[in-house]
Amino acid sequence: MPGGPDRRSWTARRARPGWRPRIATLRTPFIWALRSISGRASSSPLHAKPRGWGDWNGTMAKLYFYYSTMNAGKSTALLQASYNYGERGMRTLVYTSRLDDRANGLVASRIGISAEARHFVPGGDLFAEIGDDHAASPVACVFIDEAQFLTPDHVRQLARVVDQLNIPVLCYGLRTDFLGRLFEGSAQLLAWADTLGEIKTVCHCGRKATMVVRVDPDGTVERAGAQVEIGGNDRYVSLCRRHFMGAMDTGSV
Ligand SMILES: [Zn+2]
Q1: Which CATH class is domain 25-201?
Q2: Which residues, other chains included, contact 100 with Cβ-Cβ below 8 Å and sequence gap of 6+?
Q3: Where are the domains of the chain?
Q4: Residues with catalytic annotation?
């Protein structure tokens, strides 16, 4: 019936390629958060074996940077992805910053899971270290937590791990600090990563939170101070940009 109304049944129309239900709520921040946790975010390899996972399937490895604000579940995502490799009998290396001594030599998630981790330190050579390890026993994937604290040299070393050793490297970190400035490691990763992904969480207003403020013990928003102040996750509040700017103007969240 060319030109006429589509008289096929709803079931038949639903079966057409590319059909998707139009449900507005699929776009709500709550669903974003759930999809981040469940690993079903579009094209995100957060919890599955990443595409480009190196020698193991004959493809080219990639450097990934998954960024977010505070308390969005970065460590949880990292630990789940690393676990997926281990479950398939593949070895991973997990690194975190020595700056972060909340859990010594561990990547720990707020929901109670953790894994042993090595430390990356300023002046260290991650390419040499990972290369030696890989020569002794093949490494399927490298995970970096607290990637905002990488130095630009570290990021270049990790790029060589990807390009020369063909090992995928997945970095997880904060994009910006409590004043809305890029961290050094995050700036280098944003520039150099093959694939960028955002791990989403929500502001108190329901919008996506992309910024973070730091509050002092009496609850006042800090508008100056050291960029790095480890510990006390409860001192950081993730906000949308509108509420971040409001907090900076008024000094309260
Ligand atoms: Zn907001």
Answers
A1: alpha beta
A2: 146, 149, 230
A3: 25-201
A4: 146
